[in-house]
Amino acid sequence: MLHECVGNHEFDFGSDILVQRVAESKFQWFGSNVRDKATGNVLGNGLDTTLFPIASTAQDGAIQVGMFGICTPETPQLSFPGDKVEFQDILGTAKRCVDDLKARGADVIIALTHVSIAHDKLLAKRVPGIDVIIGGHDHDPFTMYQGKTFIHKSGQNAYWLGRLDFDIRKASGKVTVSPAWKMIANQNVTPDAGVEALVHKYMAPFMTADHLEAGARQLAVLSLPLVTKTSVMRGEESNFGNLVADAVRQELGAQFGVLNGGFVRGDTVHEAKSQLTVGIVLKEMPFPRPAVLLRIQARDLKEALEQHLRHYPLLSGSFPHVSGLRLTYDRTRNTPEITTFQDELGNNVDLDDYVTVATTKFIAGGGDGCVSWKKATLLATDDTIAQVAIRFLEKKRLIAYPEKEGRVTIVD
């Protein structure tokens, strides 16, 4: 029995494309809180809840297992679901699903979720009756109990395979669930021949001589390492983030450049003396989102950057990487704020001035909940961020970005 819970990145190409992919898949999709506005049904004819029996040696007979699935309500700020989809409240949805499953005789209830660990904990605290939460969305593995609810996440990008085993006992109407889990590192593992053949089938159109030659085209050589580790991109200044922010700023002719850390996906370190190729840049920034040039009042830009930083010290895809700016974010204040807001020459930016900023279309639309960007005026749209970076790198040829330049400083 195969089940999947829809997540925010399923909407990266819009809800219509997602519905097509769901129809083509051979497993069932949960989207208990993801509704088609026109019909009120789960998007793509997905599942709201399901109930199935598992064999038991208990005298009370088979154990009934109920399941439902929850997607992050922040999807409209994280991706591109469009206006045909409604993301309903997760607590209300979970309570409704638990009540429905209990009424149908569920002994054990499992929630598949694609929400933050904070939301998983909230579900466990506020919705009685959930025995197990199996979650995604967060990039790091996580296993814990919140009250009587067992919560497990296996991390990102198949770095780990998580195996969960449950000892479920039922006697005199009382059910106990005892979990055991194993995390298997996906290192030095021989690929499954069948899976490898399937991947090759779908990759074949992109493995032609022309594609391979284009991907291997050298853009620049690194004098110093470039870091794209998720833990860095989402929590501190990164030299790769600085490079891309410089690229969009210079190529679009802006005063400043801003890139959200979640835009970069390579999660690696490119060592000194290695080459940056077209293929590497496209792998690092796979989202086909264009760079845009905006005009915005500096006061609103400062407010937007404070919104980017609001999750710190938690890792967040909103963490900003900047070009042409030097800023200090002071978290020791009652209300954390940017206290130093200067250009690259050390001059204070006049908050009443209007400035030009190059960034991603995603950010310009208020992505990651950074809504102050919506006050900006769109001046121009360019190539994708990756293509803009490629143009920039072709002109440089030799890249030497120090690990830190003090563009973003955090005071704790």
TrEMBL record:
<keyword id="KW-0547">Nucleotide-binding</keyword>
<dbReference type="Pfam" id="PF02872">
    <property type="entry name" value="5_nucleotid_C"/>
</dbReference>
<keyword id="KW-0378">Hydrolase</keyword>
<dbReference type="GO" id="GO:0009166">
    <property type="term" value="P:nucleotide catabolic process"/>
</dbReference>
<comment type="similarity">
    <text>Belongs to the 5'-nucleotidase family.</text>
</comment>
<feature type="domain" description="5'-Nucleotidase C-terminal">
    <location>
        <begin position="233"/>
        <end position="370"/>
    </location>
</feature>
<dbReference type="GO" id="GO:0000166">
    <property type="term" value="F:nucleotide binding"/>
</dbReference>
<dbReference type="InterPro" id="IPR008334">
    <property type="entry name" value="5'-Nucleotdase_C"/>
</dbReference>
<dbReference type="InterPro" id="IPR006179">
    <property type="entry name" value="5_nucleotidase/apyrase"/>
</dbReference>
<dbReference type="GO" id="GO:0016787">
    <property type="term" value="F:hydrolase activity"/>
</dbReference>
<protein>
    <recommendedName>
        <fullName>5'-Nucleotidase C-terminal domain-containing protein</fullName>
    </recommendedName>
</protein>
<dbReference type="InterPro" id="IPR036907">
    <property type="entry name" value="5'-Nucleotdase_C_sf"/>
</dbReference>
<dbReference type="InterPro" id="IPR029052">
    <property type="entry name" value="Metallo-depent_PP-like"/>
</dbReference>
